[in-house]
C-alpha cells in the first residue's frame, strides 16, 4: 500500500517511508521532495521514486516515470492518498509489454 500525507508530503510504501534522496541522485526535479495531484516537479520526483522502488532498475524507472506521473500521480487528490501496490504493478506490466 502506498500512502501520502498531504500536510507533511511524506510518502510510505508498505509502512516504510519513501525518501527522495535516491531518486534525486538520478534526476533532481524537486529539491523540496515529493508532491502529487498535479504535473509539476514534486510529482515528477515522486514518480521516479515509486518507479525505482517497484522496478529496481534505473533505466526502466527513467523510461516509465513521466508517463506514470501524468497517468497516476497527477490524478491523485491534493490531499492524503492511498494507492494499492497492485495498481502500480499492473500499470508497469501494461507499459512494458
Q: How would you describe this structure to a colleague?
A:
The chain has 97 residues and is α+β, with helices and mostly antiparallel strands. It has one domain. Helix content is 47%, strand content 14%. It is built from 4 helices and 4 strands. The protein has helices at residues 21-26, 41-55, 58-71, 85-95, and strands at residues 2-5, 10-13, 16-18, 81-83. A 4-stranded antiparallel sheet has the order 3-2-1-4. A hairpin with a 4-residue loop joins strand 1 and strand 2 (10-13). 31% of the residues are buried.
Question: How many separate domains?
Answer: 1
The stretches of 5 or more residues where confidence is low (pLDDT under 50) are none
Distance between the termini: 24 Å
Sheet with most strands: strand arrangement: 3-2-1-4
Identify the overall geometry.
globular
Radius of gyration: 12 Å
Order of H and E elements? EEEHHHEH
- Helical fraction equals 40-55%
Number of helices: 4
Strand content: 5-15%
Largest sheet: 4 strands, antiparallel
Structural class: alpha+beta
Number of beta strands: 4
* Overall residue-averaged pLDDT value: 97
Keywords:
alpha+beta, four-stranded antiparallel β-sheet, 4 helices, 4 strands, globular
How is this structure best summarized?
The protein has helices at 21-26, 41-55, 58-71, 85-95; strands spanning 2-5, 10-13, 16-18, 81-83. With 97 residues, the chain is α+β, with helices and mostly antiparallel strands. β1 and β2 form a beta hairpin.
Task: Chart the SSEs and their pairings.
Elements: E1 2-5, E2 10-13, E3 16-18, H1 21-26, H2 41-55, H3 58-71, E4 81-83, H4 85-95
Antiparallel strand pairs: 1-2, 1-4, 2-3
Amino acid at each position: 500500500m502506498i500512502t501520502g500525507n498531504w500536510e507533511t508530503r511524506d510518502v510510505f510504501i508498505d509502512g516504510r517511508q519513501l525518501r527522495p534522496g535516491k531518486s534525486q541522485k538520478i534526476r533532481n526535479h524537486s529539491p523540496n521532495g515529493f508532491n502529487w495531484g498535479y504535473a509539476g516537479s514534486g510529482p515528477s520526483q515522486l514518480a521516479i521514486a515509486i518507479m525505482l522502488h517497484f522496478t529496481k532498475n534505473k533505466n526502466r524507472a527513467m523510461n516509465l516515470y513521466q508517463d506514470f506521473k501524468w497517468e497516476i500521480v497527477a490524478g491523485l487528490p491534493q490531499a492524503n492518498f492511498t494507492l494499492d501496490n497492485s495498481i502500480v504493478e499492473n500499470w508497469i506490466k501494461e507499459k512494458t509489454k
